[in-house]
Amino acid sequence: MFTGIIEATGTITALTPKGADISVTVDSGKLDLADVKLGDSIATNGVCLTVVALTGKGYVADLSLETIKRTAFADYKAGQVVNLEKAMLPTTRFGGHMVSGHVDAVAEVIERHQTGRAIEFWVKAPAHLAKYISEKGSVAVDGISLTVNEINGDEFKLTIVPHTALETTMDAFKPGRKINLEVDVIARYLERLMLGDKAADKKSQVTMDLLARTGFLG
Q1: Are 149 and 159 in contact (CB under 8 A)?
Q2: What is the pTM of this model?
Q3: What is the distance between the alpha carbons of residues 122 and 111, in angstroms, rounded to a whole number?
Q4: Which one of 9, 130, 137, 171 has the fewest beta carbons within 10 angstroms of its own beta carbon?
């Protein structure tokens, strides 16, 4: 589990094919790895990755086909700058929101505007995720815990203060950029709970889609 509060940015130095999977090597920059051991989790652009090796300058993790399919890692190359966050501890200050590191899908930045010292982004989410995104609710974008400030269908607006832009990769975001999107984990759990015993029914997804179309799910 993570909070979406980025601790550092790092750089992908290698993406190495390993059979059907990929091994990724990350230079972790100023992220303190003194307390990291093999098997620990580090959110890398919002994707929960398991450390399989420590290099002295960073770490190595494996990417499954599912991860490649669901995330923007499919487009990453060596040199890609990524947001980093170590898994939270019981004593961690909960400054963001509950982030699982399990990316739902890839979204796209469609607009960027400067508003005073802040930057406003409009992001287009996959249509099937729109029901989980609410005004003043939380989303994780490339692992960053952010507040949704406005919604228009499957598009939503984010307002980024200078500190967030400086300490994350968001200052480099431009229209057309593909980003990892994780919706609020509580919204996903509530949807499933609403099914009750019908959750075991293979037709349950049809039921949820009907509720969404009728506006019951927002």
Answers
A1: yes
A2: 0.87
A3: 5
A4: 171
Question: Residue 174 burial (CB < 10 Å; 0-12/13-18/19+)?
Answer: exposed
Which long-range CB contacts under 8 A does 7-10 form with residues at least 24 apart?
7/31, 7/84, 7/85, 7/86, 8/84, 9/81, 9/82, 9/83, 9/84, 9/167, 9/168, 9/169, 10/44, 10/58, 10/81, 10/82, 10/84
Burial (0-12, 13-18, 19+ Cβ within 10 Å), 13: middle
- Between CA 165 and CA 163 the distance in angstroms is 5
> Which stretch of DSSP H or E encloses residue 149?
strand 144-152
Q: Which residues contact 50 (CB under 8 A, 6 or more apart)?
A: 39, 40, 41, 61, 62
Query: pLDDT tens digits for the chain (218 residues)?
Result: 899 999 999 999 999 998 888 999 999 999 999 999 999 999 999 999 999 999 999 999 999 999 999 999 999 999 999 999 999 877 777 777 889 999 999 999 999 999 999 999 999 999 999 999 999 999 999 999 999 999 999 999 999 999 999 999 999 999 999 999 999 988 888 888 888 888 788 765 545 554 554 444 54
SS3 213: helix
Query: Taking a C-beta distance cutoff of 8 angstroms, is the pair 85, 44 a contact?
Result: no
Q: How far is CA 137 from CA 99, 145, 158, 185, 193, in A?
A: 13, 10, 11, 11, 19
